[in-house]
């Protein structure tokens, strides 16, 4: 316990000292950020040694001047929203590995009963999770800043399209980074611990869902801008090419295309007009034509009505007749299924009806075959395959009509 307090106290003193060192030389460091190198004459020899030992400055090469450390440059770029110098670190795999190691260290400390160490590991784990979420949030803010600044201040459409492509690639990298997060693995890591489950599953899933929504909005905006840029580019290319053509041919005069007998294919794109005709009933000359058309219509056949007094219900089939016909239909359908089992291949219902010269109506026959198939036990139904030959009722009606049914045995 005492060792932990000593370590924390040592980290606190070192961190405070180096932050104070940055604050003491903030103007010179900021000037070095803008210039890209550090002016060594602006520091004393002792100050340079302290800044180098504190990992604030470094010399990339013996032949090069001192410069800011990359992490410090990235921190300044993030704080001042300098998109030209800012680099988004999307190394999600490294963060996930750190989270796994912290979870293991936290569980080991709990297993040993060292709760102070476990609490410290949980705090570090919380920092890693928040860093992971904040990393995506910073990248999304960078994308929005690029949409609102870089596209508006570049000089040409080509530069805008290139900026859009850069943003699209960065968006793709962020989506790939989000895909690396496997919540099934995180659930296994946090199994049996409410603190870990809330941190690794509930909070992280909510944050990443928000990041997904933000990235979707960014992607929509990028696609809209790219479509607009492409449209502007095509128009500007058309105008610039036309202007170049007119410079090369100053005496060019556009032809009078409407008065030409043969139009170029580029202008002759309209569909042909289909004329429609109708009889004008208000014109006397059309009446004779209409009368001839009416006389040419087929006349309905005369229907002899049966005397209702002599007619009786004897013509209707009795209950016994109905039962006999139903049984005969069922028997014919069972014979159809037996033929399918005997042959082993697919058999068309209408072809069987025609081959056997059965007198059943085709619609009633197909309906009965479907009814028998639906009434089969589940295991027997799985042994058979049914294929419906369907056609659309009409071009304006999406209703599908069953024209034929084929039944066959499935391969074992």
**Total domain count:** 3
Tell me, briefly, the overall form. Answer: flat
The helix-strand sequence is: HHHEEHHHHHHHHEHHHEE
Strand content: 5-15%
Please name the CATH architecture of the largest domain: Up-down Bundle
Helix content: 55-70%
Strand order of the largest sheet: 3-5-4
CATH class of the largest domain: Mainly Alpha
**What name is given to the CATH topology of the largest domain?**
Methane Monooxygenase Hydroxylase, Chain G, domain 1
Going by helix content, strand content and strand pairing, the class is: mainly alpha
How many whole angstroms does the radius of gyration measure?
42 Å
Let me know the largest β-sheet.
3 strands, antiparallel
Per DSSP E runs of 2 or more residues, the count of β-strands stands at 5
Mean pLDDT: 78
- Ends: how far apart? 71 Å
Residue runs with pLDDT of under 50 for 5 or more positions: 83-90, 307-316
- Summed up, the helix count is 14
